Amino acid sequence: MSEVTTVVLVGVGGQGTILAGDVIAKVAVAEGHDVKLSEVHGMAQRGGSVDTVVRFGEKVHAPIIDTGVADHLIAFEITEAARKLQYLSKTGRLVVNSRTIQPLPVLTGAVGPAQGVEAELQYEGAVFIDAEALACEAGSPRSANVVLLGAASYGLPFAEQTWRDIIAARVPPKTVEDNLRAFELGRAACAKGVCDL
Fold first, then answer.
1. pLDDT tens digits along 134-192
2. In which domain, by residue range, is 27 found?
3. Is the dihedral of CA 33, 151, 189, 170 positive or negative?
4. Domain harbouring 170, CATH code
5. DSSP of 7-59
6. Per the confidence metrics, is the pTM higher than 0.85?
7. In a domain, 197, yes or no
8. Is 107 contained in some domain?
């Protein structure tokens, strides 16, 4: 692991990227790291892009990153993965939710959907996770973001119990059990080889 590890989470408003970034930051702090967190909201409440950058290490000077430096890119949907691919380092890990959310111009018919995006991501070494299906299996369709946290956790240097403790403290009390199950399913998908790069 480099002196500072950079995790970039990308998605659209309503997918839970901000919560996921907050959990990663709190897990890193709990394990003794210096952490910087930055969020960019692009009309998030209307389905616009939401990017969260979490950087952790012995000493982190800034939350801002340049292209080509992210150690982990966690994409909550395919289009945003392709749009933010330039942030991933050549040796970085790319985990992508297999869901596509079409932007408004596509939905209104003003432009056609992008072609070949999934193939491009596969070429770049993307690992696809059906986060919605695993979230439903966990009993909470809204916990796809926590499924992706489970997938991300498999490649990050933190104890599994720390993840569980922070998730339990961060989600609504009545959803703790389902969210912990969602985390376990995402992590197990990677343990079975789905996320091996």
1. 999 999 989 999 999 999 998 899 999 999 999 999 999 999 999 999 999 999 987 76
2. 4-102+115-191
3. positive
4. 3.40.920.10
5. EEEEEETTS-HHHHHHHHHHHHHHTT-EEEEEEEESSGGGT-EEEEEEEEES-
6. yes
7. no
8. no
Q: What span, in angstroms and rounded, lies between the C-alpha atoms of 93 and 14?
A: 24
Q: What gap in Å lies between CA 47 and CA 61, rounded to an integer?
A: 31
Q: What's the Cα-to-Cα distance from 195 to each of 3, 42, 73, 107, rounded to whole Å?
A: 23, 29, 13, 31
- Give per-residue pLDDT as tens, 32-66: 999 999 977 655 455 677 889 999 999 999 888 88
On whether residue 45 sits in a domain, the answer given is yes
Looking at the predicted structure, is the pLDDT value of residue 106 above 60? no
Q: Which two tokens stand for residue 103?
A: 């932007």
> Does any domain span residue 108?
no
The number of distinct structural domains making up the chain is: 1
